[in-house]
Structures are given as C-alpha cells and as structure tokens.
Fold:
Amino acid sequence: MEELKAARARQNHADPAESPPKMHKSVHFQQNAASPKSSFTDLGKAHSCSVECTFPATNPPRQTSMQTLQKNNFSGVIDTPSLTQFVSGVVDYAIYMLSPEGYVNSWNAGAQRFKGYTADEIIGEHFSRFYTEEDKASGLPDRALLTAQTEGKFEDEGWRVRKDSTRFWASVVIDPIRNDDGILVGFAKVTRDITERKLTEQALHASEERFRLLVKGVTDYAIYMLSPEGMVTEWNTGAERIKGFTEREIVGTHFSRFYTEEDRANGLPARALERALADGRLESEGWRVRKDGTHFWAHVVIDAIHNDMGELIGFAKITRDITERRNAALSLERTKEALFQSQKLEAMGKLTGGVAHDFNNLLGVVVTGLELLSREVKTPSATRTIESMQRAAKRGANLTQQLLSFARQQPLQQEKYNLNRVIGSFEAVLRRACNETIRFEIELDPDLRPVLVDATQFEAALLNLVTNAGDAMPRGGTLIVQTRNVQLDHHQVGMLPAGQFVAVTVKDTGTGMSADVLAKATEPFFTTKGPGMGTGLGLSQVHGLVRQSGGDMLLETEVGEGTSISLFLPALVGDNDAAETSSTETNAGNDKALVVDDEPDVLDMAIELFTTMGYDVLSANNSEDALEILLRTPNVDVLFADVLMPGMDGIALGHRARELVPGIKILLASGYPAPAVHATDSPLAAFNFINKPYRLAEIMKMLRKAD
Structure:
C-alpha cells in the first residue's frame, strides 16, 4: 500500500507524505434492454449499476463541492444506494478499477466470485496476477493497458487464473478513464467468465473439423468418429460401402458390433480403445463383420482425439478392407510352400527311383535263380528254404514297386474309369481293413466324372489310406470314403492348374497329425508307427501315384480331431462324361455281380470266379452292406450270396434285393443246405441254390438256369 501511495504521489508531483486525500467518485451506468448500443447487451436484461472508483485527485481543494467533484472526475451522478446494490447484486461480471500503473483500486462481488479473491486480498495488487505465466512472460498485461490508453479501448478473450490456480476463459474489456483535462486517471475493467461458451465453440469447431476430415467422397476407407465410450458419432460413405450400414442405422450404436463374437467375448473392442488412449494410436488387423454377417479382413487405425484443454473428446477410426491383399499374400505363401515341397520330393524321388530301379534288377536275378533252383531241389528242407527266400524276394519286389510309385517312375496302365465303380468293387476289401469299432461310410457322387487312372494302383493307394485311417483310430471312430466333382482355381491345391477335377477323400476322426508330422508325412520311410508296423511308404506311394496321374494330394489335419486326405485327379470333361463311361471302361458293357459272404477267403474266391466269367464284381461281407450297395447301384444283374450270415441271412437279403432291383438274378450258396431244399414250401424254393464247395461250371449252369 505504501508503494501504491508513492506511485500516486509521483503522478501528482507531490511528496507522498503530502499526498491529497482520496476522492470517491460514483459512475452511473444506465442499461436499457431496448438500447442496441449498450455496452452490456450480453447481460440479457435491463439493469443499472454504479461503480465506485478511487483515484488520486489532481490538486484537489481541501473543501469539495458536487460541481468540483463532477468537473475533476467522471461525468455521472453520485448514487450511493445504487453503488451498494451493484456491489452486492452483480455476480455475472467482475467490474473493478485500476490505477494507471495497473494496480487494483476497487473490487466487486462478481470479481470475488470469478477469481476467488476478497477485496482485502486483492486491492493494491497488480492486475497481471490474473494472467497465465505464458501471457505474463509475453508482456500481455502491459500491452493491454497501452492499447486501452492509445486506442481508447482494449477488448480480448483468453485464459485467466483464479486464486486456486485453476483457469477460466475470460472476456475482458478495459476502458481508459480520463478527467476533464484529458489526464489518464485509471482504467475501468470488466471481466466475464465465458468458459462454457468457449467449450461450446470448441465443440462446434471440433465438429466442423471432423466433418472436414471425414471426406464424404472417400469410398476406399471407412472413416468415422467415436465418442470416448466407443459410440459411433460420425459415418462416411466408405464406411457405408465397406460395412453395409447406413449413417442412420449406425450412429449412436457401439462400434463393437463390427467385431466377431469371439473378439467381443475376449474384450478386444474395449482393449483397442484403451491402447489407443494410452499410446495415442492403435494399428491392427483382424476379422470384422459386415451388416449381412459376412467377414472381411480389416486394417484398422484408431487415434485418440483431445481438445485444446487436453481432454479426451473421442476417437478417429479408419478401417480398410484388405481381404484381397491378405488372400493374395496367403496364396503366395502357399505357392512357395508347395513349390518347396515339390522340389524336395522331386529330388528325393530321383534318388529313390534310381535306387529302386537298380534294386529291382538285382531282385530279378534272385527271383529267376530261385525259380530254377526250385525245379532241381527235391529235399523237403531245401524246398522250404527256397520258398522262404521266394516270399522274401516277393516282399522286396513289392517294396521296390512302392518306391517306384513314390518316385513316379512306376509304369501305369491308365484307362478311363468311373471311380465310383472301382471303389464299389473294392468296398469289401476296404471294410475288412477296418476293425469292428470303426464305423465305415461311403459317400459317392452319383454324377461323378470319369478319370484316367491305373485301377490296380489306385486300389492299392486307397487301401493304404483306409489302413492308415484305421490305425489312427485305435479306440474306434468314423471313417468316410467320399467322391465328388470339384472346380479348382489356379494353385488352389498344390501346383495344379485351374480346371475340373475328381476328388476322392478319406476322412477319419482319429488322433490327427502335429505340424511337424504333417510336414514329413509324404516323405519315404517316415512313419510314426512302431518298429515292424509300417515301412513309411504308404502316403509317399499315394502321393507319387496321384502326381504321376496328373493330380495332387491335400492333407488337412488337426491334433485330436482327425485327418482328411483328398486325392485330386483331372476329370475327363466332354461328350463322354460320367453318364456315358460304361461303354468305354475296361469292363465295358459287362454285367454286374454282387458277391456277399462273411468268410473273407470264400469271398475272395467267389470274386475271382465271377471276374473270370467277365462280370464287373461288387462285394460285401454282410447283408446290410450289400443292401447299401444295391441302393447306390440299382443296375446290379446278379446277386450271389451265402445263406448263413450274421444278422440278416441270404434268404432275407434275396427278398429285399428283388424289391430294390426287379429282375435281378439271385443265386444262394451254403455248405449246410436245408433238408427239404427242393420242397415247394422251403424258404430256398424261391431262389436258385448251389452247394458249397462249388465249381465254376456249376455256377455258370445255375446262372443260365436263372435266365
């Protein structure tokens, strides 16, 4: 206060000790709501106020009168009741006076409410304390007074600081106050807290900025805004095109609806916002869901958006559909892997083929020599020794055949076949390869296209697959052999070109393969079976046969879920498709015979007999499987069945066969015929019957009788 008095004394060219007494002035501001030029129109209502200002008078007389006060100070009226009413009633404005140097001379209730200081705390203090450190460092308070003094008024908005150091956005007006002689005697300062208005303006500006950024014409990117809670607030054309939702459908809903059920259950949407908030930005890829439920692979960027005060106001999210790019990358990776495997197997095949070829020549000498020796050796022990050697040589020959098949150097006798018929005639053998705990199913495409294949080699390959599948299900399960027509894209399976193929799939519910086992599954001599339980040539032989036939093999497996192995062979597409192949196959035009017997050795002999007679032979080892074959193949001409079999016997099977295939020839055989087999009331009387053991001539005679 003493410094303030000294400053005032210097202004009036007087010693501080002789400074004149303070003079009180009352300035009356009349506000009328009807006056558009009023400086307080933003108050929104008519009011009047008086502001008490204390200034050092210039050479004031000892005795003053109303005229002298009005002359030397402000024009206006002295209205002490109005002054009291203003000070106590106006709280929306901080209205106070400053000395020419900027020291506070008066303080009202509004100033105390906005800034937190009482009159005793602030009068005599410099008004710059209300400014931020940045503004004080830049000299803004001094420039404000200078501008008001030189230009007659200073008006501004900016951050101001309360007593508790919090900030508020203020609207400030500073007017210079001069006496009748034009001498500056102080400043009138009016301040209002317009923080709310500032926030509203910022929100409006942010909204306009968002609309500017979310270019409506962008269609390759989904660009939209989220609230801090993740609700969609803005939506662009690209978002509508990629995700299928219109702006009306999506605004106001949570962005997690674009995620898969699994990702939502794992809390991925919430974690995405948390990471974006913590790091400022999140970039990721993953599956997203369109409105129609389809999935696409998305590249996503989420940015946290803050206002000028550093507060989070939401997130900007940019999504792009990169499904095609991902598929292309995966396809390229699969192609590289397939090429690597092909090159590896090609190198191994060349080596294996060369070794097998030379070994086969050596075996030829051994087999021929043993054949010659067997004619000269007469002793029983020597004969047994030679027979053992011949059996070993035969196994060695089979092994070399498998190696040559893997190496794709095995001579093939390819002919046009419908694989449904090949599988059907081989079905009994396939079923015997599985134990009784395995459910064996066959699913054949009735419109299957023909292929060029070596039927004998194909049967051996199929038996290999079925045997391996059975070994993978030691506790039982389901094994399915399936055929179907497929259209493949370029390199969809291995290195195969695009085109029509026939797929033969052997699927099991067994133990499956690990990734390491799968990578080596087609390599020769690799096996997971114990010693003496396998050569490791099964899959390698199958792979070699299929590749030599112009196709490829696809293995799909999962540990604990099972394995699916599909053989893809080029289909013969043209005028002579699957519906017309019977006239061009090896057994073209021959009748079909279904042979049924529960004894494997007897069944094999019967199959051989009917094959010798020129029939296309289908086989089954029980009546239930035989009926299933008849349902799939209704053009069977002859049924040759044993009478006594577990479950449904041959007689019941014969009656059901006549219902399914009218006109079918039925021949039943048994080693234990009924005593009255020729009686008219015997169940066998309705069918042709032959006793076991039977001869080829007897079967042919009975078949002619059935015509």
In short: The two ends are 138 Å apart (CA to CA). The CA atoms of residues 21 and 56 lie 7 Å apart. The longest strand covers residues 167-178. DSSP finds 23 helices and 23 strands in the chain.
